[in-house]
Design brief:
The protein is 47% helix and 13% strand. The chain has nine helices and six strands, in the order αβααββααβααββαα. It has a three-stranded antiparallel beta sheet. Strands 4-6-5 form a three-stranded antiparallel beta sheet. β2 and β3 form a beta hairpin.
Length: 203
């Protein structure tokens, strides 16, 4: 397969069929081209969708791509799917998620040091929601588990990589109060984005 148009057509079909984020290297193997060339075709296809303001857009997540709905049509989708039961994160979960997002990789002890209280159950809950995961072990005494965010976290907030997180100055000041009736994504956005300042993010 050599035609750029044919390759992009194949990628479009693969995205529709795959559902989950499609890894560029896997897609490249399927059409027998190198991954950099495949990445370029995905970016072209993504731009075409944007230029045409299509109802479906292509989102990039860590060198993978996925079909998503155009956010401009969210009101119509909500009406179509109403009533929808929103999953919500507790205030404690929002606090821990914000700390992990900006301080990763981070240990439970470091999270508790910032929050001032235990967070075993909160961490367990975020792991079950696949928003955070174990990413290794610290070299500190006892080699405690290190936690980081997941691709599911990136998907939930529309980020391509963790570098897309807005800068904050001090993670202790990142803890804000979210309204209890706000859905999971909106509440987390309040906790993560209504912050001022700058902090070093994971490279």
């Amino acid at each position: 397969m050599s035609s750029a148009r044919a390759i992009k057509s194949a990628f479009e079909s693969m995205l529709f069929t795959w559902g989950e984020p499609l890894d560029v290297k896997l897609a490249a193997e399927v059409v027998n081209i190198n991954w950099k060339e495949a990445y370029g075709y995905f970016k072209e296809l993504q731009e075409e969708y944007i230029q045409e303001n299509r109802g479906i857009q292509i989102r990039e997540i860590n060198k993978s791509f996925q079909l998503v709905t155009n956010p401009e049509n969210s009101d119509y989708i909500q009406r179509l799917c109403t009533p929808v039961k929103h999953k919500r994160l507790s205030q404690s979960a929002l606090e821990v998620l914000a700390i992990v997002a900006y301080k990763q990789p981070v240990t439970k002890g470091e999270i508790e040091s910032i929050r001032g209280i235990k967070c075993d159950r909160v961490i367990e809950g975020l792991e079950k929601k696949e928003l955070i995961k174990e990413v290794g072990r610290s070299n500190a005494i006892g080699r405690p588990i290190l936690y980081g965010t997941t691709d599911e976290f990136l998907k939930a907030f529309g980020f391509r990589t963790i570098k897309d997180l807005p800068d904050i100055d001090d993670i202790e000041n990142a803890i804000t109060t979210a309204e209890p009736e706000i859905d999971e994504v909106a509440a987390a956005q309040i906790s993560l984005f209504s912050i001022e300042g700058n902090v070093d993010k994971t490279e």
